[in-house]
Amino acid sequence: MRVSGLIGLDISNMNQILQTVESLKPDCVINCAAITDVDECERQPKKAELVNSIGPKNLAEISADTNIRLIQVSTDAIFDGKHGSYSEDSSPNPINTYAKTKLEGERFVSSIAENYAIVRTNFYGLNPNGKGLLNWILKSLAEKREITGFEDVVFNPLWAADLAECLLGVAQMSYIGILNCSGNQILSKYEFAKAVATNLGYNNSIIKRSSSYQAPSLIARRPKKTYLDNTRMRELLKNTKIHTIEEVLRDPSFDIYRRKTT
Ligand SMILES: NC(=O)c1ccc[n+]([C@@H]2O[C@H](COP(=O)([O-])OP(=O)(O)OC[C@H]3O[C@@H](n4cnc5c(N)ncnc54)[C@H](OP(=O)(O)O)[C@@H]3O)[C@@H](O)[C@H]2O)c1
After folding, report:
1. Residue 178 burial by CB count (10 A; 0-12/13-18/19+): exposed, middle or buried?
2. Nearest 5 degrees, angle CA 245-CA 234-CA 175?
């Protein structure tokens, strides 16, 4: 598999995709692009649809024409979060625009492409733009600002580097269909924040329990229990190490990434 440098590309623009595919001739495309700000999706549904649904449709059409393998990164948020432990066969029931547009993207991929996989996930990582749950927790801890962690929102996030390994694994296998790629620990956002603080040696008493009902400023509805059943992932990707949150945070390399990104 070839690895190229960075090239800008708008996945809602078919001409740009065609030109890029023509010049790079990839074996596989892993689509990570999306509008992920769920409140922004509620405010701008057309923009969300263009990137989260039409973008994957465009890529699926190219895949169907060329047989380039397409890996579509999707989300646990396509479920309503009423009970959790969703398998690849569970029925989605999206409750906000982000989730509806991501599910639509999945459906375009599965109905148009032939050589494809849809990876449903939830992950945590260090984002150089400062966005994301882990960056927010780390910044709050460093500034000794009180953190309110939702106790009623439960997930099983995967370390971003492990997700990258999973995606490379899926890219190189012939598996067709949906695959849940998630971590092995099921925990609430409150417990996640506590785990971050504890493993990095912070005083975790500034992390307070809260409920998503007490968050009036959120525009989009959030599903509560979205943890994914990852049994199939563990069978198919048995050589891919899935790190615990403790292993990730206590690894010396985490501190190096962290200094670069926070
Ligand atoms: N973060 C999570 O926990 C999570 C959970 C479940 C699933 N996912 C899925 O995982 C994928 C990556 O998420 P993320 O958290 O890394 O998101 P992110 O930080 O918001 O990154 C999304 C990327 O998509 C790019 N993008 C937006 N519109 C585009 C377009 N029209 N053409 C090409 N690129 C475009 C953005 O570029 P600019 O920055 O230049 O706009 C950005 O680099 C997404 O598919 C998301 O739905 C994420």
Report:
1. buried
2. 130
Read off φ and ψ for residue 82, nearest 5 degrees: -75, -30
Q: Which ligand 1 atom is at minimum distance from the Cα of 124?
A: 3
Consecutive 10-residue runs of the chain (262 residues): their mean pLDDT?
Answer: 72 97 96 96 97 98 97 98 97 98 98 98 91 93 92 97 98 98 98 96 91 79 95 97 96 82 66
Backbone φ and ψ for 212, nearest 5 degrees, come out as -65, -20
Q: Is residue 8 one of the residues assigned to a domain?
A: no
**Residue at 46 is within a domain:** yes
The whole-model pTM stands at 0.95
Q: Is residue 6 part of a domain?
A: no
11 lines ligand 1 (CB under 6 A): yes
Q: Is 102 in the pocket of ligand 1 (CB under 6 A)?
A: yes
Mutate to test the pocket of ligand 1, among 10, 16, 36, 41 (most ligand atoms within 8 A of CB): 36
What domain range includes position 47? 14-261
Among 32, 179, 189, name the best residue to mutate to test ligand 1's pocket (greatest count of ligand atoms within 8 A of Cβ). 32
Domain count, the chain: 1
80 part of a folded domain: yes
State if residue 163 touches ligand 1 by the CB under 6 angstroms criterion.
Answer: no
For ligand 1, atom 15, name the residue with the nearest CA.
Answer: 36
Q: Domain with 86 in it: what CATH number?
A: 3.40.50.720
Return the structure tokens found at 120. Answer: 């449903």
